[in-house]
Amino acid sequence: QVQLVESGGGLVQSGGSLRLSCAVSGRSLYEYIVGWFRQAPGKEREFVAALSLSTSNTIYGDFVKGRFTISRDTAEATVYLQMNSLNLEDTAVYYCAATRIATTFWSSRRHQDIQYWGKGTLVTVSS
């Protein structure tokens, strides 16, 4: 199985930036897609970004609009989410996520196709 541990959340002013980190551990990691979802109170968990550990291809949610970038370190042990130009609507708990259902998830981008979740890290954007 895969273990995911997020960090980097906190309080940031509107227009500011944060970088979230997801430490990834487990076996056969090349089989996995790793990415980020977010969820605010009263809202559904929504897709943010994902990266294939086998191809390094990336995909993004429609709301990102160039503001966020997903990447990984050379050891493939940590996946990052760089978030710029944050606004109040970005306030949420951000979850690292992983799945082996690669073909399905790459097109569906649904949280129902995720197999492993981190505990989440809270991002709060203030005015």
How does this structure look, described?
- The protein is mainly β.
- 6% of the residues lie in helices and 50% in strands.
- The protein is built from 1 helix and 11 strands, in the order βββββββββαββ.
- The strands form 2 sheets. Strands 2, 4, 5, 6, 9, 10 and 11 form a 7-stranded mixed beta sheet that branches.
- The chain is globular and about 45 Å long.
User: What does the overall shape look like?
Assistant: globular
The helix tally amounts to 1
Oligomeric state as shown: single chain
Count of individual beta strands: 11
Question: Whole-number radius of gyration?
Answer: 14 Å
**Helix- and strand-based class?**
mainly beta
Which features would summarize this protein structure in a list?
7-stranded mixed beta sheet; 1 helix; 11 strands
List the helices and strands and how they pair.
Elements: E1 2-7, E2 10-13, E3 18-26, E4 33-39, E5 46-52, E6 58-60, E7 68-72, E8 78-83, E9 92-99, H1 102-108, E10 116-117, E11 121-126
Parallel strand pairs: 2-11
Antiparallel strand pairs: 1-3, 3-8, 4-5, 4-9, 5-6, 7-8, 9-10, 9-11
Q: What does this entry show, briefly?
A:
The chain has one helix spanning about 100-110, and strands spanning about 1-5, 10-15, 20-25, 35-40, 45-50, 60, 70, 80-85, 90-100, 115, 120-125. The chain is mainly beta and about 130 residues long.
